[in-house]
Amino acid sequence: MTRVITYGTFDLFHEGHYRLLQRAKGLGDYLIVGVTTEAYDKARGKLNVVDSLVTRIENVKKTGFADEIVIEETQGQKVNDIKKFHIDVFAIGSDWTGAFDYLKDYCRVAYLERTRNISSTMLREKNSPIQRIGIIGSGRIAARFLPEARLVSGVSAQGVYNPHTESARRFADQWDINVYEETEAFYEAVDAVYVASPHETHYGYIRDALAHGKHVLCEKPMTLKQRQAEELFGLAREKGRILFEGIKTAYCPGFHKLLGIACSGTIGSIRNVEACFTKLERAGSRELTDTVYGGSFTELGSYVLLPVLKLFGKAYEELRFDTIRDEKGLDIFTKASFRYPSGIATATCGLGVKSEGRLLVAGTKGYIVAEAPWWKTSYFEVHYEDAGRVEKYSETFLGDGLRYEISDFLSMINGSSSSEFKLTRGESAAVAGILERFLEEEGRPAQERQ
Ligand code: C2G
Questions:
Q1: Which of 28, 103, 111, 139 is most buried, most CB within 10 Å of its CB?
Q2: Could you give the CA distance from residue 311 to residue 328 in angstroms, rounded to a whole number?
Q3: Residue 114 CA, ligand 1 centroid: distance in Å
Q4: For residue 250, what is the DSSP state?
Q5: 3-state DSSP helix/strand/coil percent for the chain, to nearest 5?
């Protein structure tokens, strides 16, 4: 009996998949089909999978070609499967020609000609038209966004707007996108907007973009006032548009896994959360010279508040800030201390003081620790009373990580999945409320430009 194996995601099952399975089955007597998990697809950079694993398996089953279906979860699994299932032939589409030659040591490798003019990507684009994203702002963050957006299928960077037209023009040239000098023409040309302008201008731009019926992905901090965040989410709902705050850690697969483990009871009840992120800035940087909106907490606070709010919620009983300021009065190191009914937390950040950037979640049975850069979580450990027992977890974090939030933003626009739970509207508004209170206590209340 000749045993054949093939693998795939089989998203939005189509004729190309059908024909591949049919021919793979024709190569032998028994066909095993490996269907990828979402986590494995994410790890290999395939971000926009629409169908759930269950649906994809069902679709493979329905063809009647698969004698057995297995789940493909990790890199390196193919070799083990081939040995385990005594495989004679490994089959895969010709788009992979050469990529699996290393399996020739274990079985015959067959590259089957790919069916032309059909692909899951094409179907995804047909079902949900490409979202043309316009970028507001042309600084460092906007420059980080573009290469990441290019890796997410289903979005295209349409152009840039910045009232400082010189900067916008330079940016557009560099990235080969359009430049818009008037907001009306800009909104006319786009479906969604990425706001990467200075903090104090976010509110005005978001309101404007929503009023024009555009979806909005806004850099953190979305606003510096809770009431404004709530108002904007209300407006988005009214307009039937997605408003999404880009605290990238919230969408990063490793951080998501860490939260899952923390909430699973593995470390017991959570009693303490300590999050720290410091980044020494150059003396002349905007962050250290803007005496109204600069400083460590407006810059990095969103990151360190995130695990606190995710793990303990928004209903803290006490909040106190301790701050070290520079000669201009700007906070260069800030510690926000929270008291909750069942635990305590600190969110610490610095631009002028260096500390160990780590995330620590302590519970009644053990603790989780993720070292810097935990805000791009790719590795963490779970420790227990028995010092010899350490569980290690790793997760892929590709590039700058913005691709994850862009991909989630897109899924929410297309209605294919809801990522709202990763950072809820309430959590976003709570972050704004904490930043607002901090700025008030610092004697520099936010006055967003309208
Ligand atoms: N395929 C095809 N013709 C198409 C589209 C896809 O023959 N028009 C084949 C692919 O070459 C692959 C299978 O259908 O053999 C599944 O394709 P995908 O769902 O895109 O999965 P893929 O990312 O190719 O999975 O471990 C995963 C595998 O290594 C590859």
A1: 28
A2: 35
A3: 8
A4: G
A5: 40, 25, 35
Query: How confident is the model over 364-400, as pLDDT tens digits?
Result: 999 999 999 999 999 999 999 999 999 999 988 988 8
User: Does pLDDT of 450 surpass 50?
Assistant: no
- C-alpha atoms less than 13 angstroms from C-alpha of 87 in its C-beta half-sphere: 30
| pLDDT, tens digit (0-9, with 9 covering 90-100), for 47-56 | 878 888 999 9
pTM of the model: 0.83
Between CA 221 and CA 446 the distance in angstroms is 12
Task: Determine the Cα–Cα distance for residues 49 and 152; give it in Å rounded to an integer.
Answer: 11
For the Cβ of 35 lying below 6 angstroms from any atom of ligand 1, the answer is no
Q: Cβ(171) to ligand 1 under 6 A?
A: no
Beta bridge partners of 274: 346, 360
Question: Are 324 and 251 spatial neighbours (Cβ–Cβ below 8 Å)?
Answer: no
Mean per-residue pLDDT for 29-53?
A: 89
Q: Which domains does the chain have, with CATH numbers?
A: 3-112 (3.40.50.620), 120-247 (3.40.50.720), 253-396 (3.30.360.10)
Assess whether the C-beta atom of 114 lies below 6 angstroms from ligand 1: yes
What is the C-alpha end-to-end distance of the chain, expressed in Å? 73
351: three-class secondary structure by DSSP: coil
Strand, coil or helix: what is 109?
Answer: strand
- Torsion, Cα of 291, 428, 227, 406 (10° steps): 80
